[in-house]
Design a protein that fits this description.
Elements lengths: L7 H9 L17 H13 L7 H13 L13 H14 L6 H20 L9 H11 L4 H13 L1 E3 L2 E3 L3 H7 L3 E3 L6 H13 L4 H15 L13 E5 L6 E4 L9 H15 L2 H12 L7 H4 L10 H15 L2 H20 L7 E7 L2 E4 L7 H12 L15
Length: 397
């Protein structure tokens, strides 16, 4: 039983005077002002309000008129692909009224940018080719992008006796590190979920399953199922000071056992294969006893790798499986999130990833690490997982 409540009313009051009304807005999907807008929209949906707050209407008007498509800012997280996804999502909610002709330029841009990234070997969910797939799923239908993406993944894959894999191009480009990233947010888990979902759609069925099987063959030897945690690896590094398999204690969406449990549950949902359901349960149940900061890497409230993110992932696992152990874990992390808000002096002081610096607290009200993402997660949990479509940006639906 949850003892405390999320401070929705305090966040509502703050949202009414949020700075995007008085200064240039940040249109970043994951870290910009869109998080607060998404919270307000879903708050209105849950309260069955027929009109959106006027500040949201104003923001959307600015958003649609100022959107700029550029190859330099193409990504889902911070660019045109994310902008386009938002428009498709809000259109599906009936908040916007666009038709296929209105989306034509966006379809072309997202398709071209996504395929270019796949050809470069950049599959990244938020910064590469899979981000474009999120957009086309939101648009609906059997878009040619999916088949072309499978063909390109097949052409760019490293194939040997170990299985199939792709190197993490962003880490290679920025740090010179040659590694296979195993995470959900940026790594091979998102590729597995992508392959499984496209297979379920009946697109390139044999090829998508062959890639999925080869990738799982590569990943499986690195998974260690033990009681102490850190079961699912974060990366396999080939060069640098410390080559080898890397593990993290993080209990989060981006990296670690909890995100991996959700990914394999989704892969099981899409393929119907028991081995993926079993692995999801093995990974998920081994997280249940981990609650300290040392065992989880959690110290703040955010969605990606914070208290409310952990609560939401357990809520998803409970929603998918009905396993009450996940509900208990969800409630624990909700309480940790509520306590965090009290500890920092209220929702107005919600801290981001790097919560404390020499210059003081870093306030964050964005989606991925800030108060709006935490509020969306809690709002959806409180309403028994209704209106959860926003989590498609996390590949969780």
């Amino acid at each position: 039983m949850i003892k405390t409540e999320f401070p929705y009313h305090a966040l509502d009051a703050m949202a009414e005077t949020y700075p995007y009304l008085s200064q240039p807005a940040s249109f970043y999907l994951l870290s910009g002002d869109l998080g607060m807008v998404f919270y307000q929209i879903h708050r209105a949906l849950h309260q069955q309000e027929t009109e959106l707050p006027p500040e949201v209407e104003l923001f959307l008007e600015r958003y649609t008129s100022h959107m700029h498509l550029s190859p330099q800012t193409y990504s889902f997280a911070e660019g045109g692909t994310g902008f386009s996804w938002v428009l498709a999502y809000l259109n599906n909610l009936g908040i916007l009224e666009f038709d296929d002709e209105d989306f034509a330029e966006l379809d072309t841009f997202v398709h071209q940018m996504g395929m270019h990234q796949f050809q470069l070997g950049n599959y990244d969910l938020w910064y590469g080719g899979i981000g474009s797939a999120l957009y086309f799923w939101e648009r609906g239908g059997d878009h040619p992008y999916f088949a072309q993406a499978i063909d390109t993944l097949d052409q760019t894959a490293i194939k040997d006796e170990q299985g199939i894999r792709w190197l993490y191009q962003r880490r290679l480009a920025f740090e010179g590190k040659e590694q296979a990233d195993f995470g959900f947010a940026h790594g091979l888990l998102s590729v597995m979920v992508f392959l499984a979902r496209v297979h379920q759609m009946g697109i390139r069925k044999e090829k998508s399953m062959a890639l999925l099987e080869g990738l799982f063959k590569f990943l499986q030897p690195a998974i260690k199922l033990s009681a102490e945690g850190r079961n699912f690896p974060s990366a396999l590094q080939y060069n640098g000071d410390a080559p080898g398999v890397k593990f993290t204690n993080r209990l989060a969406f981006c990296y670690g056992d909890l995100g991996a449990a959700c990914a394999f549950q989704l892969i099981g949902n899409y393929t119907g294969q028991d081995r993926f359901f079993e692995l999801a349960q093995q990974l998920g149940h081994r997280t249940l006893g981990r609650q300290s900061a040392e065992d989880t890497g959690l110290s703040f409230g955010g969605m990606c790798h914070g208290f409310y993110g952990a609560a939401y992932l357990y809520a998803k696992l409970h929603h998918w499986t009905g396993d009450k152990a996940y509900q208990t874990a969800m409630e624990f992390w909700q309480e940790e999130g509520h306590a965090f808000i009290e500890r920092v002096g209220g929702i107005k002081n919600f801290c981001g990833d790097a919560a404390f610096t020499e210059s003081g607290t870093i306030i964050d009200h964005g989606f991925i690490n800030g108060s709006s993402g935490a509020a969306l997660a809690q709002l959806t949990i409180d309403n028994k997982m209704q209106h959860a479509g926003w989590d498609r940006m996390l590949f969780l639906s």
